[in-house]
Structure formats: structure tokens, C-alpha cells
Amino acid sequence: MLPKKRTMTDAPTHEVRGGFPVHYHYTVGIVGEIFFNGLKEKKLLAVTCDECSKTYFPPRMYCEDCFVELTDKEFKVLEQEGTIESFTKTYKDHRGDPLSEPYYLALIKINGADTVFFHKLVNVDEPKIGMSVKPVWSDSPKASLFDIIGFEPV
Amino acid sequence: MKNRKVGIVSVGLTKFMRRAKETPKELAYYAAKTALDEAGITRRDVDAAIIGSAPDAFDGVHQKHEYLTDGAGGVNLPTMRGYVGGGTGVFSPIQGWYSIASGMHDVVLVTTEEKMSSVLPSAQAAFNTIFDNMIERPLGPNLVWIFALEMRRYMETYGIPKEHIAAVSVKNKGNALDHPSAMLGQKLTIEDVLNSEVLAEPVHLLDISPVADGAVSFVMMSEEKIKEFGISLDDVAWVEGVGWNVDTTMWTNRDLSYPKYVEKAAKQAYTMAGQKDHSPETLRKWLSFAEPYDPFNYKELHHLEGLQLFEKGKAPLAAYEGVTARDGDFPVTPSGGLLGVGNPIAAAAGMKVAEVYLQLTGKAEKRQIPKDVTRGLAQAWGDLMQVGTVIILKGGRVE
């Protein structure tokens, strides 16, 4: 049923422009400080829950299942190699405009981790699930997600 | 069908801070884990999780409930978020109550969280977007402005001197000196409050609460589960009454001098708790103390009247004369409130419910009210000055 008085087909004649006038400075958090400092040293730091043996990379402050704190544990340095769990090639930006250079995004399971890591693939023509990849590091890491430029085939 | 009996068995609070190092979900974890440890249980014992958090625009994460889920212990559980703006911190334990009272769940972990320091240039910039985008937002309103308008109407209607309102800031910020989570405990005089920086007349800096980061959690259980876990009734506060009510979004269409929606929420809670006489004298005897929402000093008074604890226009003099001091005839906000402990929106009201629990179980340490307390009330308020949420707790051994 439609309302009896239909006005929604008329084009609006007035509008008020607005927006959400905010931006953010997010703290990276207790474990984020450790993770990003690791990236700055070109290290992949992970942490393992003693109760369920799950290894988190990126590391977490707590095991979300066992609900125990992990930050007092020793962080492990993982080897710089992993496998592609899934990937996609993206052709458009968030406005729907075509990208000048389509690129690959992937979920990568670093060897020794039980969780996957979301990042770009670089220097690759035909990625495959199960393919071994390694991080390509920035020459000037500064504790950022983009200290890793992307992952390339081993 | 009769509702099952529900108790709060533990609370966990982070410190309230200007800028926490933790992420929002890490704050939630600290509160939730503390509450579980205090109850002597683990996440494996929890049947459902409830997340209370106010506008997504503060933490800067849309669908904040799904973001907070793992920190609030809700992974792979029936987890949900309730959201009524500033009223959320009291509404979340109300959700915990009906989840258990209905027979749906036995053990519920409730977490309230807010990280307001993420938003730039200020929390007020986010609040700007709650107003009507055609007829209000073009004027650039923020909450300080509209509360200045409400405060002036309240003062004018009942002939209230500012000194009486300022007494609430002195009391609450003083009480907060004894709260381990507090960020703004201060020993002040009425003159300090009156002479503080003017923000929007008649609102001065010391009339309002500070934005903050923080989290508060509760473990709630059915009576059967409390027995099964062998939890002492000394550690339990029963939920005796709950109520909530929402007025029109058009704040311009309301009586600004009296919060009718708080009255309706309160009467719902009193009636549910079996208290049919809603006269102030009776209610002040029946309740041992109250924790009404105090983001601004006048709001504590406004709410005490809406809660029927004082006649209209009579709460300010009572505050000025010390009736509502921690050692007064009717203690109000013994915690230190939002004015003194801090105002991480949803967690701030969570802190108020936690205070009622801590007072009733004799765990309020230096803040313990120096008389027997059997029953307490917490109330919050929010959305666009339109929602009232009320919870009444009683001691574990009180019949």
C-alpha cells in the first residue's frame, strides 16, 4: 500500500547542504604500539594464547575466545613468508571510478600464524591461492601499515 | 508469566581519562575481564553479551557494536547493542535484566564503553549532527548552547539562584576525590564555580562534566545461577525496577523546566518495584540514595525532581543545604558523578549503576555512605534531551 497523498515523485526544490564535520586521531592501542614498532624494525610480531594455542598475527591484546590477556606474553618474530588464502583484483575506487592501475588485495596467512593478514599483492601477474609470498619493505619504515608496500611471490 | 529474579553480581571499571592509550575495544576488554574475574567466572560461563555505546561518531567507528564485540566478550554469543544516547549506560543493564528475567539467558556480560578523545576537533562537532538539519543545524548548535537555554528556563520558572546549582558541582567534584576511576576530583567552593570561565550564559566551565574515555562492565545472573555458582548474597544487588521513556525529538516542543520523560520512566520503575506511593517524602525513605545523571550540575537537580525525589523547583535548595551530601539525609551521587568522575557517555551512566551496586554491597570504600543502605536508584538521560532511563537495585539480603 502507498500513502494516499503521494509526493515522493515530485522533485525536491530546496535542499540544505551539510556533512559530519569531524575527523579522527585513533590511538593504535596497547598491542598496536608493539605491532607498529615491530614493523618499523621490519619484523612481523605475533602472540600466542597459552590456553588455546592460537597465534594471532596481527597480534591482539587478548584472546577473543579464551578472554585472557596476551600482552604480558613474549611476542614471537614470525618468518617473513606466508601463503595466499584468498585474493581479489580491484578495478574501481570507492566512488565507482575506474582505477588507472587495477591491483590485487589478498588475505595472507604468515607462516606460524592462525589468523590472516589483509594487504596488497605486488610484483605478481597471476596470484594463486596457496602461493608463497613475502613482504616487500619500505626503505624508510616509520611504524605504519605501509612499511610493508605489499607481498610478492617468493 | 512472572519475571525471574535477576542480580548484578560484579562490576569492572577502567579509569576515566582524557586520552586513553587503549583502543575502544581494549578499554572494553579491561572492564569486561575485571567484571568476570570479580564474579569468579570466565567467558565460557557467559550466555549472552550486551554492548552499550553512544554515537559511533565519538570512537569514529561505524557499527561500533560489531567493532566492540570481541573486547566485550561477545564473540560467538547472542550479542547485541542497545542505544539511547546518554541514556545507554542505564539502558544496557536494563537489557541485561530482561534478557535474564524473560528466561532467555542465565548469565549476561554487559559492557558500556566510550572513547571520546578520538574525535576531532571536539565531541561537540559530532553532537552538531544530532540536530534537525533544516531548521537547527544551520545555526551551528552544540549541547552547551541548548543546555544553557534549558538551564535558564529551569532557573526562571522556579526562581533558582545560581549558587544553589553551583553547590552540585562542589559536592560531586568533591565526592569524586574518593573514586579510583575519577579524572576530575576537586575541592572547590561555590565561588570557584560561579567565577569559572563562561561558556554560554548561564553555563560556566565548572557547571559541566569533562569528555572522557572509559568502560564499565557488569555480570548479571538469574537467581538460580547465583545459587549454582555459590555466589554470596553479600555480593549481589537485585534488580527491583526498571523504566525508560522517550519524549519527542523536537526539544523545542517540550517543557524545558521539567523532564516529564524522566517522571514517566521513574514511575514505571517504582511501580514495578512495588512502590505505589510516589510522593517525595515516601520515596526518599524507601530509597537510601540516588545516582541521577549529572552531565551539568543543574541536570542532577532537574532529574531529582523528575524522579519525584523532590518537589518541582525544590532540589536546588536541598543541594545547597547539604541534604544531598554523602553524609546528608538523602545522599545523591556519592560516586562523584559525571561532573567529577568524568563523562565517557555510555560508560559514565554505567559507572552510576556500578556505584549503586558498590554501595549496596558495601564495596564503595572511601565513598561508602555512612549509614545502612538497602536500595538505590541510577538514572541516565540522553538522545536529544528526550530519554530517561531508570534502574532500581536493592541489597542481596533485602526482602
Tell me what you see in this structure.
The complex is a heterodimer of chains A (154) and B (399). Chain A is mainly beta. Chain A has one domain (29-153): Nucleic acid-binding proteins (OB fold (Dihydrolipoamide Acetyltransferase, E2P)), CATH 2.40.50. Helices cover 8% and strands 34% of the residues of chain A. In chain A, the strands form 2 sheets. Chain A has a 5-stranded antiparallel β-sheet, with no helix packed on it. A 3-stranded antiparallel β-sheet of chain A has the order 3-2-4. In chain A, strand 2 (44-48) and strand 3 form a beta hairpin. In chain A, 23% of the residues are buried. Chain B has a domain at 6-117 and 212-234: Thiolase/Chalcone synthase (Peroxisomal Thiolase, Chain A, domain 1, 3-Layer(aba) Sandwich), CATH 3.40.47. Helix content of chain B is 35%, strand content 18%. Chain B is built from 15 helices and 12 strands. Chain B has helices spanning 24-39, 56-59, 64-68, 88-101, 123-127, 143-158, 162-175, 190-194, 223-228, 260-272, 280-286, 297-306, 315-320, 337-340, 345-360; strands at 6-13, 48-52, 79-82, 107-115, 119-120, 198-200, 203-204, 213-222, 237-246, 289-291, 375-382, 387-395. In chain B, helix 4 packs across helix 15 (345-360) and helix 7 (162-175) packs across helix 12. The model of chain B has no long low-confidence stretch (mean pLDDT 96). The chains are: A mainly beta (154), B alpha/beta (399). Chains A and B meet through strand 1 and helix 1 of A and helix 1 and strand 5 of B. Strand 1 of chain A pairs antiparallel with strand 5 of chain B.
How is this fold's topology laid out?
The complex is a heterodimer of chains A (154) and B (399).
Chain A: E1 23-24, H1 29-40, E2 44-48, E3 55-56, E4 76-78, E5 82-92, E6 98-110, E7 117-121, E8 132-137, E9 148-153
Antiparallel strand pairs in A: 2-3, 2-4, 5-6, 5-8, 6-7, 8-9
Chain B: E1 6-13, H1 24-39, E2 48-52, H2 56-59, H3 64-68, E3 79-82, H4 88-101, E4 107-115, E5 119-120, H5 123-127, H6 143-158, H7 162-175, H8 190-194, E6 198-200, E7 203-204, E8 213-222, H9 223-228, E9 237-246, H10 260-272, H11 280-286, E10 289-291, H12 297-306, H13 315-320, H14 337-340, H15 345-360, E11 375-382, E12 387-395
Parallel strand pairs in B: 2-3, 2-4, 10-11
Antiparallel strand pairs in B: 1-8, 1-9, 4-8, 6-7, 9-12, 11-12
Helix pairs in contact in B: 4-15, 7-12
